Amino acid sequence: MNLNEDIQEVLFTAETIAAANRRLGRQIAQDYAGKEPLFVCILKGAIVFLTDLMREIPEAIDIDFMDVSSYGGSTKSSGEVRILKDLDLSVKDRDVLFVEDVVDTGNTLYELMKLFATRQARSMKIVSLIDKPVHRHQAVKADYIGLSCPDEFIVGYGMDYQDKYRNLPYIGILKPEVYM
């Protein structure tokens, strides 16, 4: 099965994504110079973004992972946020950066920020490769945004539909007939 055949249009090329990562990496390195922030990667979609982003940061960082679900196998958020895998590291008195592939409804990050506040994180910021504010349900705003996206169902560069398309090197619009 050639995954490229299911793509209606390429929104962001690998080169565009790489440029966004360089820009974000420079800004984060400047803002956290002399600190050792904890990057919390929201699995599975953000793993590709985290991998490339952290290579752009010459400062010391820690990384950890959470698997959080609000979509299941659907194209729309259920609104219910479930933690499938929690962190291994403590966030107490740490500067935390949530690493997300896309901020859409904001439900997941809203719930995680509430949780991390009870865990006594020193600070919390959000770095997202894609910002898609049209469906925002919560007053959540990414502090670092790579690219803005129209109201389309996107896949590639870690983002999926039913666990497929994550390995595409670009971000594209999935043809509606694939998921309807």
TrEMBL record:
SUPFAM superfamilies: PRTase-like (SSF53271). InterPro entries: HGPRT, Hxn_phspho_trans, PRTase-like, PRTase_dom. Residues 13-162 form the Phosphoribosyltransferase domain. Its EC number is 2.4.2.8. The keyword Repeat does not apply. Its cofactor is Mg(2+). Pathway: Purine metabolism; IMP biosynthesis via salvage pathway; IMP from hypoxanthine: step 1/1; Purine metabolism; GMP biosynthesis via salvage pathway; GMP from guanine: step 1/1. Pfam families: Pribosyltran (PF00156). Purine salvage pathway enzyme that catalyzes the transfer of the ribosyl-5-phosphate group from 5-phospho-alpha-D-ribose 1-diphosphate (PRPP) to the N9 position of the 6-oxopurines hypoxanthine and guanine to form the corresponding ribonucleotides IMP (inosine 5'-monophosphate) and GMP (guanosine 5'-monophosphate), with the release of PPi. This is Hypoxanthine phosphoribosyltransferase.
